[in-house]
Amino acid sequence: MKNSVMISVKGLVKYYGTMRGVDGVSFEVRAGEIYGLLGPNGAGKTTTLKIIAGLLKPTAGEVRVMGISPVEDPVAVKKLIGYVPEEVVLYDSLTVMEFFEFVASVRGLDQSVWSWINTLMKSFEIMQYMYTPIGALSQGTKQKVAIIAALMHKPKILILDEPLKGLDARSARIFKELMQLHIKNNGAILFSTHIMDIAESICTRIGIIYNGKILAEGSVEDLRRMANEPTGDLEEVFLALTREREEVSHIIEELRRELSR
Fold it and tell me: What's the whole-model pTM score?
């Protein structure tokens, strides 16, 4: 059902030793939307996504994926999601075909899934690598393999951590269109990125995460109003909301002085 809550995160906290990686994060992702977690490297994006995907246990807080806790039932959650991690780790000794067969087997998919896999492989132009060991592929091609593996079972929820990294322009455009088709079919997407232009062009709503906290969330227009930047691009909005604008201006001025000597 459109606008139903697909992912609910409440008061999420994650410690790594004495360091707090995520600090009380709360947000919801609804059916029919692409929710973007926008923040710099080290802000807590990847940790948050891994907890939602059932790969990490939180120190505190609650996560529900279509009503299911990834802590209590990670297997059930994995059936509901398609996850593309920031750092793609595949089985290098397997061929692409063997890897897809392995993923299909783990997910309990029958032979009919190969029609969809072949369509995706043709779309991303990797049919010629069907019998190539994954370890011999370029990073961009490995990214395409990871994306296809995440889409294979047609999940209702996609959790994507910098998924466009390494993709050529053609493949990036196709994947963006696939994302739009996914939400038109009442799916939901949680999309993590540190690239402002991508967040602005793709996401329905954006949560700005900084030092493990959500500082603000809403549409780009909502964020502009919060930052008092009615005509600013998302970069200006981000700098205003994170209170980094003065620091950045100071650094640029210092660089200008040094270069003019």
Answer: 0.90
